[in-house]
Input
Amino acid sequence: MRAVIAEDSVLLRVGLVKVLEAVGYEVAAAVGDAEALLVAVEEHRPQVVVADVRMPPGYSDEGVRAALVIRRQWPEVAVLLLSQFVEERYAADLLTTNTSGVGYLLKQRVANVDEFVDALQRVAEGGTALDPEVVAQLLVRRHRDPLERLTPRERDVLALMAEGRSNAAIAGSLVVSDSAVAKHINSIFAKLDLPQADDSHRRVMAVLRFLEVA
Output
């Protein structure tokens, strides 16, 4: 699988290259700013991009704006954003353009290589990966109807869904059975008044409702 990395910190950029290559990715380009990122994506058409939220020249939201361009012009390219701090609006901005193949992690998550690679793989395969700290902040801020209908355990399940976890991973995290997770998810769908559709679509809609971008 081909990847492009955009990170202005040379040390982190080199580290990301080594991590990705170690698990079988072909790193087609590793650049230090958003403009170079867009050039690299157009040239190499990678399956996945890993990009810093803040990059030169302004160190504000250059990476996010580049990611939105990528999702608009090359929607088949998955994007995983990295941030030094929790800036949850960026996760919402990214999800409003396309609900598959997107991720938002804190940079500290990269230190746990297995966790980072797992999130990257989910994003590259068309799933989502939201940092648990972002999800935790959203839970505090978005605690109002229709989310008020959810039980504490359903809230836990929805938070893990928002991170991009599968039913089996949710069951393992909460130490419950797969069938119990499925029941909680069906209850979440009903309480959030989500229309009948395939489960994968309704999972995305539930997460978007959670993020208040739907």
